[in-house]
Amino acid sequence: MLKSFLKTFxxxxxxxxxxxxxxxxxxxxxxxxxxxxxAIILVAITVRAISPLIVLLGVTFALSFVSKISLRYFxxxxxxxxxxxxxxxxxxxFITPGTTMVTIGYNQYLVNITMEGVYNAVQFTLRVWVCxxxxxxxxxxxxxxxxxxxxxxxxxxxxxxxxxxxxHRFIFLFINESYRMVLAREARTIxxxxxxKSMKSLANMISTLFIRGYERGERVYLAMMxxxxxxxxxxxxxxxxxxxxxxxxxxxxxVCIMVLSIEYLxxxxx
Length: 270
What we know:
Layout: H1 2-13, H2 16-19, H3 30-46, H4 50-66, H5 71-88, H6 92-95, E1 100-106, E2 109-114, H7 115-141, H8 144-153, H9 158-187, H10 195-226, H11 243-264
Antiparallel strand pairs: 1-2
Helix pairs in contact: 1-9, 3-7, 3-11, 4-7, 4-11, 5-7, 8-9, 9-10
């Protein structure tokens, strides 16, 4: 069971197979994709109506389609956090004052569901869904090394970028190390262990994994310093903005302007 969990977690975490596909968004310059994602997220946070959020969500799914990412996979990957947010937003229809839609209860114990509360719950869920789907689309269509370079180009603090880069690499290291430890334990186990003994074995594995991770991090740091590491990572490849990147960025800007027009010019706002 633990082996299956580790393999499933590795499959969920590993996204490089999508960034290697020759889709539309994959061929766009990482800086343009990063800026476009920030623009969509900022617009989603700004607008208050539901219609603009639906438009933005449709754009993210359309971009995933032209990126040759399965819509079913993309929907399942992006729907988990919004589903959790929808559960958190469940009290809003009951506690928000406004026009009553439905009254639930018995005798004097009555609870009103208001239109404003339902609207706020749907708005909040859609807003989170747009932000999550935009972020996941960026990660799926961009190699992690390119994302790190883009964050450096956008002057994000080097400490944060370095920690993010090392953490990403150590995730897969921990998964592989854990998988080998599980295989070694199962190879030395004849009879089925009791739940208490299994928990003790798991605790020992976690502590051993922590010590190994600390020692590995120490060796990696010393090796980096010995090779002249000064807080930044150099790359031989250069990023260049082409015509297709300008067209893509202009399209995203036009979509954002259209969404803001729907919001502030009251063009069919719902």
